[in-house]
Amino acid sequence: MDLLFLYLLACALCFSTVFGGKDYYKVLGLTRKATSAEIKKAYRKLSLKYHPDKNSSPDAADKFAELSVAYDTLSDPEKRKMYNQGGEEAVKQAVLEKEKIKKHSQKKETAFKLKEQTDTLYNLSKEKIEKHIDAYEDMFDRKPLADEIIENLGDEISDEHMTRFLETYVTDTIPPKGDNNV
């Protein structure tokens, strides 16, 4: 008999360790075998009873919030399954993980859009520089030097785009300053 008592006590301690948070079924006055309809009915009944607008008790708002969390968890099949397997903490961890993934996706999407916008601006700057080079070549029968491009378009195009263009495009096609073989 003492062995059975110790076994049950150990099981109870393990259960309370695993499911350390609130017992949402108990909060709603239900058993673990409750159906979704029973969960909904219990929540509606108790939320009317403890709603802060209807109940002037000082702990009514806390009780209502607790009911809402319990209902939110148990009415969602996925959250309920997690809760049944790992308790309140498992549900909290899953929610935090989903939020983390969502934030990461949003950051990734923002970075992609920013790169797209930067590339678009660069391409517009590049077109402007190429038009300037073509016009210069038509007027003077030679390609302009890098310094001449900077002098003529420096105010219209950002330094970053100008540098990027000069490093990747102009360096290959325009002789360096002072090259007399033009």
Keywords:
Helix Hairpins, rod-shaped, single chain, 2 domains, 182 residues, mainly alpha
Overview of the structural elements:
- This protein has 182 residues and is mainly α.
- The protein has two domains: 19-85, Orthogonal Bundle (Helix Hairpins); 108-173.
- It contains seven helices and no strands.
The helix count comes to 7
Cα-to-Cα separation, first versus last residue: 105 Å
CATH topology of the largest domain: Helix Hairpins
**Element string (H = helix, E = strand):** HHHHHHH
* Percentage of β-strand residues: under 5%
Helix content: over 70%
- Count of individual domains: 2
**Low-confidence region ranges:** 4-19
The CATH C-level class name of the largest domain: Mainly Alpha
Describe the largest sheet: none
Quickly give the structural class: mainly alpha
Q: What gross morphology would you assign?
A: rod-shaped
Short précis:
The chain contains 7 helices and no strands.
Topology, please?
Elements: H1 2-18, H2 24-27, H3 36-50, H4 60-75, H5 77-140, H6 146-153, H7 159-173
Helix pairs in contact: 3-4, 4-5, 5-7
